[in-house]
Structures are given as structure tokens and as C-alpha cells.
Specification:
By secondary structure, the chain is α/β, with parallel strands linked by helices. The chain has 2 domains: about 120 residues, Periplasmic binding protein-like II (D-Maltodextrin-Binding Protein, domain 2); about 100 residues, D-Maltodextrin-Binding Protein, domain 2 (3-Layer(aba) Sandwich), CATH 3.40.190. Helices cover about 45% and strands about 20% of the residues. It starts with a helix and ends with a helix.
Length: about 280
């Protein structure tokens, strides 16, 4: 009888130990699962916090910087900034369901503003260059452009090579500025002196006054300047350079994919051509 009681006692103790072990295993497994789930949640939250698009949607607005002295891409009409780039930017804002906010700044501050996070993107007739790509990413290109040469009527400058040794006006920070300044020595044209202006029209005014020999600026603004001063200046048929425009976004930003999608939709639907022709045909 005592043996039976002892056996029963051992059996009961073993059962209790097994039960406790099972409880311990379940608790450990639960803790591990909880930790894993917590890690997944944290990872997802971190990814969301790194998303520029998520932040833009949460803020309810998207910020753009530009230089509103670049007709027809961006310019002021009764204190309102309008133009080709503005219309494209509005399509991006509409796609995200947010408000578009535009800030007019100096052209050479546009890329730094995006790089430092002061703006979500910049649309400013920006040409894609290797130097700019060091600081920002660019979307797909949306326009083929060129750097035009403007001279006074009767000027002895007849072609791009005639700029050699001349005094040339440029808008500060533009690709025309970079090419004419030729700091890296890669340009085939050796300008005698480069004068930089915050606005293209300031350079035109100085040229008309005889203080500089020519102005190098993007083709579309050049056409606008010439049309308004056709009795005094002209644009050469030969361009200085050929280039493309794109929109600048911060490095590794998921906003790039969104804007690329909008650009593709506008091109596929033919709406991009309508936007451009609306401003080109307008005097």
C-alpha cells in the first residue's frame, strides 16, 4: 500500500512538473511571437516614417521651389506663379490629393533647397547635369531644351564659336552659366568674360545698353525676350548646347516614382503637349 502511495505521489509530481514545463514553453513562445510582431510593427513604422509621399499626405500639402523668372515654364501673372512647370506640379499634387504650395527663390538656391529638405521638390526648367545629380535625384525628363544665344541686331556674333573671347551674360546658376564659365575646362567655347544676373531680363537689358556682347539662356525664355524686343535683338539659329528638363527630388525619395507616374500619364494621354502648347502659343 505504501508502495502504491509512493508511486502515486511520484506520478503526481511528474505530472505537475510536465505541466509547469508546458506553461513555461508556452510563455516563452508567446514572448518570442510578441517580440517578433513588435519588431515587424517597428520596422513598418520606420519605413512609413521614411516615406516622403506618406509625410506629404499626412501634411496635406506638397512644397515646390522655383524661380519665377523663366517664362513660359514659371513666371508671375498678376502676382500668381503660373507656367508649364506649375501645371505639371499641380497634376502631382492632385495625384496625391494634397495642396500645392510654391515658393519663388533664386534659381541657384532651388537644388540646395531640395537637398536640405526645405522643399519636397523643385520644378524650375532644371537641366539634368552630373553636378546636380551629386546632390539630388531627377525624375524622368519631360522636355528637350537648348541654351540659346541672343545678340543685338547687327552683331558680329553669327555662330556659337563667335562667342570665343566675348563678354557673355547668363542667369546665375543655369547650365548656360556652367558652360560659359567652364570651370572644368570641358567646354569647346572659351568665353572671354562671364557676367551673372539673377534674372535673364537683366542680362538682356545690359546687352541692349551695350555693356555685354551676348546673352546665353534657355531657348523658350530666349524666344519670349526676343519677341518683346524684336526691333533690337535676335536669337541665333545655332544653339550653344542641347539638354533636357526634369524635376529635382531628394536623394532616394519615393516621390520620384509618383512624379514619374504623373509624367507618363501626361505623355500617354497627350495632355503634356496641350500644357506646353498652351504657353508656347501665348504671347
Amino acid at each position: 500500500m505504501k508502495k502504491m502511495k509512493m508511486f502515486a505521489a511520484f506520478a503526481l509530481a511528474a505530472a505537475m512538473i510536465a505541466g509547469c514545463t508546458a506553461c513555461g514553453g508556452s510563455s516563452s513562445s508567446s514572448t518570442a511571437s510578441s517580440t517578433a510582431a513588435s519588431g515587424t510593427t517597428t520596422s513598418a513604422a520606420s519605413a512609413a516614417s521614411d516615406s516622403a509621399v506618406a509625410k506629404i499626405k499626412a501634411a496635406g500639402k506638397i512644397t515646390m521651389v522655383t524661380n519665377a523668372e523663366f517664362e513660359p515654364f514659371e513666371y508671375k501673372d498678376n502676382d500668381k506663379i503660373v507656367g508649364i512647370d506649375v501645371d505639371i506640379a499641380q497634376k502631382v499634387a492632385d495625384k496625391l490629393g494634397v495642396k500645392l504650395e510654391i515658393t519663388d527663390i533664386a534659381f541657384d538656391s532651388c537644388v540646395p533647397s531640395v537637398q536640405t529638405g526645405k522643399a519636397d521638390f523643385s520644378a524650375a526648367g532644371l537641366s539634368v547635369t552630373e553636378d546636380r545629380l551629386k546632390n539630388v535625384d531627377f525624375t524622368d525628363t519631360y522636355y528637350n531644351a537648348s541654351q540659346a544665344i541672343i545678340v543685338k541686331k547687327g552683331s558680329d556674333i553669327k555662330s556659337r564659336t563667335d562667342l570665343n573671347g566675348k563678354t557673355v551674360g547668363v542667369q546665375q546658376g543655369t547650365t548656360g552659366d556652367i558652360y560659359c564659365t567652364n570651370e572644368d575646362g570641358s567646354s569647346d567655347i572659351k568665353v572671354g568674360e562671364v557676367k551673372r544676373y539673377p534674372k535673364g531680363m537683366d542680362a538682356i537689358s545690359d546687352m541692349i545698353a551695350g555693356r555685354i556682347d551676348a546673352v546665353v539662356i534657355d531657348n523658350f525664355p530666349a524666344e519670349k525676350y526676343v519677341s518683346k524686343n524684336s526691333d533690337k535683338i535676335q536669337k541665333l539659329d545655332e544653339a550653344l548646347t542641347e539638354e533636357t528638363y526634369a524635376i529635382a527630388v531628394p536623394k532616394n525619395s519615393d516621390l520620384k516614382e509618383t512624379i514619374n507616374g504623373v509624367i507618363k500619364e501626361l505623355n500617354d494621354s497627350g495632355e503634356m503637349d496641350k500644357i506646353v502648347s498652351q504657353y508656347i502659343s501665348a504671347d
